Amino acid sequence: MVKDLVPPRQFDGAQFSTYRPDPEYPSQAAAVEAGERFAGVKAAANSGSKGLFGFLKKAPPVKPGIYLDGGFGVGKTHLLASIWHAHPGRKYFGTFIEYTALVGALGYAEAVRSLKGTSLIAIDEFELDDPGDTMVMSRLLGELVDSGTSVAATSNTPPNALGEGRFAASDFLREITKLAGVFDTLRIDGTDYRRRDMSGHAAVTPAERLDVLVDEAVADGKSVAYDSFDELVQHLATVHPSKYVRLVENVDLLALRDVHELTDQAEALRFVAFIDRVYDAQIPIAASGLALDQIFGGGMLDGGYRKKYLRCVSRLIASTAQEQAASV
């Protein structure tokens, strides 16, 4: 599990130079410069500056972590992967859920032993959905930072607000504050780059056309995962989310029939985690039934997981558009 902690293949070649800052949002260019300094690509600003009467003022101490906070689609994962590629030494890159799964599989002590001595731990989509995760990640990062490891993370939520709307965050304020103290937080503003050139809903493929697409893909030698929406949702409940990446290995097209609204939060969150892996692998999606961006019902978009669902909607629109473009 540890050796698999590397950036998704779509970010194999991610570099600071290939990130395209939106000139309307200066915080994006500032985040690139901060990431370069953190990774050691660019020298830090002068360690001190002359103040009144020529005395040298000390620069503020650099924290061991950098935290990229911003909405979905502003390129946080690209920047995180750029930091990972540029940072020297032994390093690991994984989603928040992959690190918590690692602790669950190896045990806390063995997970610490496996990660200690690394120069960098990169954590994508840092989220605290329950008190147990709060305690585990706070303790884990504390031990790693104390041993000299740097930490880079992304999230849609500032570190001092992690957990809000999901559990009694106030009861765990000490742990959350401890995590926040590790990071220099950079706010990245902007619009979702996936939707700059597209709008509307996720593309819907008519049922009869879906069968044809699948047959054509198989005839072209592609590997197709073809299931009903219900079959997929039910199967995801039998697999730990940390293993979803294995479900999409070597898949060239995901085809889903009879898509419908989800009202069960657990099913919806598992589907979100699965789509994250599908998107990371850049697998196009063809689906019949309800447009995939409309599946989160029962007021889910107004709850504590709103940002998760909106990120998933963005990725579903992009993934169905990718399939539509490929079939034209």
Automatic annotation (TrEMBL):
In this record, what's one Pfam family? AFG1_ATPase
Q: Which InterPro entries does the record associate with it? A: ATPase_AFG1-like (IPR005654), P-loop_NTPase (IPR027417)
**Among the entry's GO cellular component annotations, what is one?**
cytoplasm
Show the GO MF annotations. ATP binding; ATP hydrolysis activity
Q: Which UniProt keywords apply?
A: ATP-binding, Cell cycle, Cell division, Nucleotide-binding
Kindly list the biological process annotations in GO that this record carries.
cell division
Q: Tell me the superkingdom of the source.
A: Bacteria
Q: Where is the signal peptide?
A: none
Q: What is this protein's record name? A: Cell division protein ZapE
Native organism is Pseudoclavibacter terrae
